[in-house]
Amino acid sequence: MLSDPGTARFIAADGKPVTTEIAGWRNAAVISGHWALHGFGMFVVEEKSSGQYVGRVGPWCPPGWPGFEVGWGIAKDFRGKGYAVEAARASINWTFDSFEIDEIMHCIESVNAPSQAVARKLGARKDREIDLFGKPADAWLTSRASWRRN
Asked: Is 60 helix (H, G, I), strand (E, B) or coil?
């Protein structure tokens, strides 16, 4: 998924595609390390009919992150098919069931219109502009009080 420049632009820490085995390993280590250190993290999304990897969606809050996030990253071939919305809804439900937090953040770069559309479908509201490690981004919020389970 992260070898695609359009995907890596918004997900990879440096915005560059993952093109080497070691870079892929490091990315996998970060995701699995989040699970090991926090006891939760992004979930793998698979296509039911084929078992193919679709992407990753779920809670994310490493040190220095601007808030408790539920984020999403969907591989290019599976975008526009509802996977991000469906998986994010399940992840938000799980997060509110598992943690005593009042809101969930979705950090979305200001130029990432497809992810903004997902946030809108989830009922999130754009709250403020943030600096996401040197990149301009928007903080979208989903509050526990306004969340409707789907």
From this structure: strand
Report how far apart, in Å, the C-alpha atoms of 21 and of each of 11, 25, 27, 28, 116 are.
Answer: 17, 6, 10, 11, 31
The residue ranges of the chain whose pLDDT is under 70 are 5, 8-9, 12, 149-150
pLDDT, tens digit, 9 for 90 and up, residues 122-141:
999 999 999 988 889 999 99
The token pair that represents 90 in the structure block? 């399940």
Q: What is the pTM (predicted TM-score) of this model?
A: 0.89
Contact in structure between 92 and 59 (CB atoms under 8 Å): no
Please state, as a whole number, how many other Cβ atoms lie within 10 Å of the Cβ of residue 81. Answer: 12
DSSP state letter for 48: T
DSSP-assigned beta bridge partners for residue 105: 69, 141
Q: Going by C-beta distance under 8 Å and a sequence separation of 6 or more, which residues neighbour residue 37?
A: none
